[in-house]
Write a structure and sequence with these properties.
single chain; alpha/beta; Rossmann fold; five-stranded mixed beta sheet; 17 helices; about 50% helix; globular; binds 5-phosphoarabinonic acid; isomerase
């Protein structure tokens, strides 16, 4: 495993961690047995369907030839993994890059995760001005937000290209057999891929759900799968990796209510969003779970930093540290003696270490996760590592990590309201 996990400042002894790990063998057996529902993602990196991977890569090349902009339509687990990967590995507000040449690949935009007309109308303008493809992703095929966005964007696409040509620019990822999206994809002849039956939305990043749009965006998905495979077989699951999962559980038992993910590179903004969804939707049920939140440093040190240092200690912190950022800069003399001549990565690291010291001194448990650098291989490790951690702690808490009954409830209530408008 290339990730470094440091629980030495988590404020819990190895004895307490060991105490919480006593059920780990049973939990790992449950995950790996293949008998539990929705655990298909556990062995997925070891059982890559090469034929399907080839088809995904072929479709990605066609998308790259067809369009300047790919609009990925989906919500929750059907989009956050892709958004996290694009944010981390391709670009963020066209500022960051880690080696994917922007002129060779379509830019990626996201739709179907908001019902804002302001947002969607902007994307209609994109369709009028640019060469665009749509990738609609919905396992159920009937989630309201992506269904609306797809209908609106598809109509504009048909207006521009005509029905037949528009159909060749629509890619669908959905259930193999059921749902209105599957019916439409088959009827209209969209290139389509399946979401495996035994993998739920937030655990589906390494299935066609994430792989097709990521490959179209120029991300090396073979390297990402190799990273996930390396993590799946890593002997670290006997050691550090499990310590993070059990430390989280021990901290919950000790009365902590929130886990705050902190990052110092904005490239991790949507990875943190993906983490919040993964942990929130997996653990938060039956009155249990750690509430996941995220903060971007150093920006949020100048707002939430006050609460962290001196407010109510209901939380612990998990720092996501990228050891070698993709770019660096030397600060000029005019910035003042303290920082002049130093690199921004050195200064960012000093900030991180300073925050950890200050917060630890105030008694706040801090866990640190070191990521050597942001590349596709390490991203694959990160995805698999956090998915497994989440499943382990959910089982330790006694909840099913793979359902979301609370989300279903809001959908039902919204439908009732809609029928009254
Ligand atoms: O993790 C999950 O299962 C959810 O977040 C779903 O991905 C989300 O609700 C979207 O569902 P669907 O893919 O069916 O549109």
């Amino acid at each position: 495993m290339d990730l470094g996990i440091d629980v030495s400042k988590a404020g819990i002894s190895m004895e307490e961690i060991k105490q919480c790990s006593k059920d780990i063998e049973k939990v790992m057996e449950k995950l790996w047995s293949g008998k539990e529902e929705m655990t298909g993602w556990v062995k997925l990196p070891l059982q890559i369907d090469q034929e399907q991977l080839g088809k995904i890569l072929d479709a990605a090349i066609v998308i790259q030839d067809q369009c300047e902009e790919l609009i990925v339509i989906g919500i929750g687990g059907s989009y956050l993994g892709t958004r996290a990967a694009v944010n981390a590995l391709v670009g963020y507000d066209e500022i960051y890059d880690t080696g994917v040449p922007a002129d060779r690949y379509p830019s990626v935009k996201f739709a179907g995760n908001t019902m804002s007309a302001v947002y969607l109308d902007k994307l209609l303008e994109d369709i009028r001005k640019k060469e665009v493809c749509l990738c609609i992703i919905s396992k159920s095929g009937n989630t309201i937000e992506p269904s609306i966005a797809f209908a609106v964007l598809k109509e504009e696409l048909i207006k521009k290209y005509g029905k037949e040509k528009a159909s060749k620019r629509i890619y669908a990822i959905t259930d193999a057999n059921t749902g209105v999206l599957r019916e439409e994809a088959d009827r209209e002849g969209y290139v389509s891929f399946n979401v495996p039956d035994d993998i739920g939305g937030r655990y589906s990043v390494l299935t066609p759900v994430g792989l097709l749009p990521m490959a179209a965006a120029g991300i090396d998905i073979r390297a990402m799968l190799a990273g996930a495979e390396a993590m799946a077989v890593s002997p670290a699951w006997d050691l550090d990796a499990v310590n993070y999962a059990t430390a989280r559980f021990a901290l919950l038992q000790s009365g902590k209510e929130l886990e705050i993910f902190e990052y110092y590179e904005p490239q991790l903004e949507f990875f943190a969003e993906w983490l919040k969804q993964l942990f929130g939707e997996s653990e938060g049920k039956e009155g249990k779970g750690l509430y996941p939140d995220s903060l971007r440093f150093s920006s949020d040190l100048h707002s939430m930093g006050q609460f962290l240092q001196e407010g109510r200690q209901i939380f612990f912190e998990t720092v996501l540290n990228i050891e070698k950022p993709s770019r660096d800069l030397i600060v000029p003399e005019s910035a003042g003696d303290l920082v002049a001549g130093k690199s921004l990565s050195q200064i960012n690291k000093a900030a991180m270490e300073g925050v950890i010291s200050a917060h630890s001194a105030a008694g706040i448990p801090v866990i640190r996760i070191d990521i050597p650098e942001l590349n596709a291989f390490n991203f694959g490790q990160m995805i698999y590592f956090f998915e497994t951690t989440c499943a382990i702690t959910s089982y330790l808490m006694g909840v099913n990590p793979f359902n979301q009954p609370g989300v279903e409830q809001y959908k039902e209530e919204m439908k009732k309201k809609l029928s009254q408008i």
